[in-house]
Amino acid sequence: MPELIAKSALDGRSLTLGHVTLTEAEPGPITSVAVYPGQGKAVAKGLKTLGLAMPAPNSFVEKKGARIVWTGREQAFLIGVAPPVLEGAAVTDQSDGWTVLALSGAGAVDVLARLVPLDLRLTACPVGTALRSQVNHMNAVILRTGDHAFEILVFRSMARTAWHEIEAAMQMLAARMGMKF
Amino acid sequence: MRLTCPLCGERDRREFYYYGAEDYLHRPSEGAPLAEWDNYLHLRDNPAGVTKDLWYHEAGCSQWLLVTRNTVTHESSAVELVAERKA
Q: pLDDT tens digits, residue range A41-100?
């Protein structure tokens, strides 16, 4: 069978307005790990081969390019690496299902404040936080990857909508900054 | 209105979907008398005060929640995971 060429939803596009940059990230493989009832130990054993464990609610952990993100009760996304052999969990490849947008810069938190009904200031949302919530009406997983950096996972089918919404918020913010100076 | 999801923390009302009374957790066993099924399906209390109902955290962790709240004061005093509730 011919090798198919994987294409991202937004061709890796990037946009900078004012102090904020929005880029489509390429996260690598995304695998959902849903632990079967009472099988926590078996799953922990499998994840240990990557130096990882099931993350606590609302958090993600990164080790050597492998990232594990809490996405629900007894459920996590393993991102950036091929999954190891995992006993005791439903393991599904989700790579094609998601688009990851990286938002960075001093104003990133102000952009998201216009779209997300959560307190994303560093005091309430430190680096390493993973939140399931909404970007306007789109379900999303929001990762705090740096003091001024977020990654936002949305369904691939919503990629262009998410880009549009965030770009609109960036434009409004940039316009306001322009008025000030 | 805000609800404190046991997993996600305090979240806005817009993230939740309301299902109905706690009664839906107490399904009658097979062969139960008709009156019991009638009660399960149709008869609801309408309390002025403490009530328990089911909410779904659809924009968050996708868990069903059992919310104890007060219809008079609008205070929500407890939120439990249905999945981890002791039967």
A: 999 999 999 999 999 999 999 999 999 999 999 999 999 999 999 999 999 999 999 999
* Chain A residues bordering chain B (beta-carbon distance below 8 Å): 57-58, 72-73, 117-118, 131-134, 139
Q: Read off the tokens for A173.
A: 């913010």
Q: Which of A73, A117, A118 sits opposite B7 (nearest CB)?
A: A73
DSSP per position, A131-168: EEEEETTEEEEEEEEETTEEEEEEEGGGHHHHHHHHHH
Q: In angstroms, what separates the C-alpha of A44 from chain B's closest C-alpha?
A: 20
Domain segments of chain B as ranges: 2-27+36-84
Q: In angstroms, what separates the C-alpha of B24 from chain A's closest C-alpha? A: 22
Each domain of chain A, given as residue ranges in start order, spans 14-27+96-180, 30-93
Output the pTM of the full model. 0.92
In sequence order, the β-bridge partners of residue A155 are A98
List, as one string, the DSSP characters of A97-119. Answer: GEEEEEEESTTHHHHHHTT-SS-
Fold of B2-27+36-84: Folate-binding fold (3.30.2270)
Into which CATH architecture does domain A14-27+96-180 fall?
2-Layer Sandwich (3.30)
Residue type, B5: C
Q: Provide mean pLDDT across the span B25-54.
A: 95
